[in-house]
Amino acid sequence: MSSVGRGRGDGGSDRGGDRGRGHRGGGGGGRGGGGYGDGGYSRNYASHQDGGRGRGRGGGGGGDGGRGNYSSYRGGGRGGDGGRGNYSSDRGRGGGGGGYGGNGGGGRGRGGWRSSPSDLHQANSGVERQLSELSLKPENQLIRFSSRPPPGTIGEKFLVVTNHFQVEIDSFLNGIFHYNVSISPEVVSSKEYGLIMEELRNLYLQSHMNGSLLAYDGRKSFYTFDLLPFNSKEFPVSVKTRQYIVAISLVAVIDLEKFRQFLNGKDVELPQTVIHALDVVLRQTPSSIYTPVRRSFVSTMFGTSKLGDGLEAWRDVMAAAFIEQIPVIEFVKQLLRWERDRRDATISDVERLKIKRALRGVRIEVTHRGNTRRTYSISGLSSMPTYEETFADRECGSNKHIVLYFREKYNLDLIYKALPCLKVGNKGESLPMEVCKIVGGQRYTKKLTNMQTSGMLKVNNLRPGERLDKISQIVSQNNYGEDPYCKMFGIKISGSPTLVQARKVPSPRLKYHDSGKENVCQPRDGQWNMQNKKLFMGGNINSWVCINFERDISDSYASNFCSRLGGVCNDYGLVFTRNSVLPPKRGNPMQVEWALDALYGEAMRRLKPRNQPLDLIIVILPDNNGSLYGEVKRICDTNLGVMSQCFLAATVKKMNIGTLTMASEKMNIKAGGRNVVLEDALMQCVPLVSDKPTIIFGADVTHPSPGNDTSPSIAAVVASLDWKLLGKYAPELSAQAARQERIEDMFGMCKAHFFSFYEENHEKPERIIFFRDGVGEGQIQDVLQHELREIQRAWMNTFNESRSPPITFVMVQKRHHTRFFPVNKDFNFYDKNGNVLPGTVVDTGICHPVWRDFYLNSHAGIQGTNRPAHYHILHDDNNFTEDQIQTLCNNLCYTYERCNRAVSYVTPAYYAHLLAFRARYYLGVDSSSDGSAAAEHGESSTDHQLKPLPRFHENLKNRMFFI
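^ that's the sequence the OP posted. Answer follows.
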């Protein structure tokens, strides 16, 4: 019996389907002609419309296929090698080697052909037959998002202004025409795409395109209001002496009827094609005025701010870092912090590396050729100083010194001859730094220094009133009413921001230990303090040592600091033994691993007769060595299996009581204690949590920085162990392909958590609440489809059951642009800066018309304008009301154990973020991009060998070492 390959289905009249796994593909296929891809079929196949062009790859050896998406509405798939077809407006994929997709894969395509009605009918019959079989399996059904129930009612109502502006589309606009753009030879840079399309407009817009406005996305597509007088056509274009062929072909007519139904609250799928088309249209004019930065815009017209080291911030409502348009020599002086002109100074290897990292990929222009300003891209630095650098001079047929060449050719005596030359272009030509100037408008995407980050925060931290004024100014300046693209496409944008109704959910009561003068606390404005309070449950630190990597702090001072720290811990209820196992030890910052290994070994020899573990290592770090922190955490977490608490030298010197109090709270959690609990949890009255064993998850994925193809993405999942108190969370980690957003090992990590929950409580979890952080909007369905199934499968596998308990799956988003602003100065709802108070909920007006979501501002603003968290209840077997889920989310924000403040989103998801970020240190990486940003801008890496992720030590299992 032949087996079928796993397949990614993509054919059908409507989107649907569930990701599923088939069996290993069997048959192969020879090299064929032009396949039409049996996987897809026309939206209107009954009328036998001809399809478009087909492409296919031959059957290959019938190995494993891809993942499949199939339901009664979505079919097709990919086996070992699959064909790819295009019938009318839908795309289908044929499966090679017998994959789900109809009748197997076609051969290697030679451009394809238009399909006859009989071809389509045969393909449709095969697809429908296989879909009817697949739809019988529950795991293949598409998971529907939760529908919106009535809005919440708890809390006092008030109005807020949002930065959302009403958009209307004229009824005369029935469709938008989508055209594909293909340029050959292949183009790489966005700038080159723009130049080619601009020349195309100049040459052919009036003569061949009826003068239509083309809303171009900068790459492969443009949209028009009118149908162009051709379905496909090729145009020759010349840019900078290079010849190109621009092929334009009609892809689809985008129907706006479903979009209007969606806006009217009908339960129809949000047509992303319409959203993308309208987004491209609206960005046309701003893109010609401002500088696009991903989905935002910045400009120098709103001012710039110096960030230091050759960088500046360009402002808008947001800000981004750009490299200053200055001579390269000036950039280097700022980067190396030269306080005086050092013309003859050489640079160290460390300084050379710093310059190279900062300038690689930066575009420069030469200044020694008068009005001829050629531009180059920096690829590196010369290995020798300029005075030793030579090049092959074609005129004299021998090598010539750079210094001599510039003197003879340009009458220019080079000054900074001790510095290396810049290597530019593909051939690595050498240019002296002092004849080069940085081209303006280049965004700086590398990691900012602490000084630059501080400067950027100051630029971005506009108070709510200032931010709203800036937004209104920009909307007025954009003048959408006169925008030619908006007028052509019938788009009308209100000039006034939208008012919506909000509610203020009350803060929870918090419980501390009864021995304190104040054992119950009602936070005010999202914050409280430890005055007159004792930790709810104190832990024990019976054995500890201290290691000092800062040479300016003496052993006696380090000892006094530890004594002071221990006193604060004991005052609040954390039992901290007075005497350390060893006197404070000094460590060499250049030999961190050796120092920690030696310290741990000596301490364990002392503790062995008592059969006692080492509970804590206190680490004193230099103020100016950020990488040392990551090294310490990596060694303690993965090698030694011991808790660590790090302090900067400046903190040790100040011995500030507030800082020591915060440290004692972190240490208490690491020691197994509890700082504070929700009073409702203690009284067993949290709705849909306290009535039966409930496990609460938090999950996040952190991605490597752009350009890093060897580090994996790291998935972190934490889960509650003490379901009655909702305070203790166990960690699990896994590595996966770079920039892969969905958690591939969700099954394994959840199974470990279910087992740990059972060990801790001697009961199975009978309810699951899952908070998922960091998912981009385009990946929501894929993530839900995969991860929800894996959670269910893990529970059933762990407890050998046929069905899983009810699950509520909530996605938390922080990467969005929504903000709230005050209507008046009523301090019942706003703080002194104009931010809405903690507990502010918005679940109407700007929310999804059909699916379930709400905005919650749970935290007190420190500076700038607060960003509320956006919660999407994607799946809810537990049938939470809006009041119940909103109150639970708000209350969980008060259980974050690292500080006495409510945090900006639910604690379990926050802990998962901390854990994932912590694990990057295990790879020797001290930074990463946030949440799913990297996933939005790159594909998963399969061509590079990924670094393995070391696992945290067994001693730290089920312990909150990442706090």
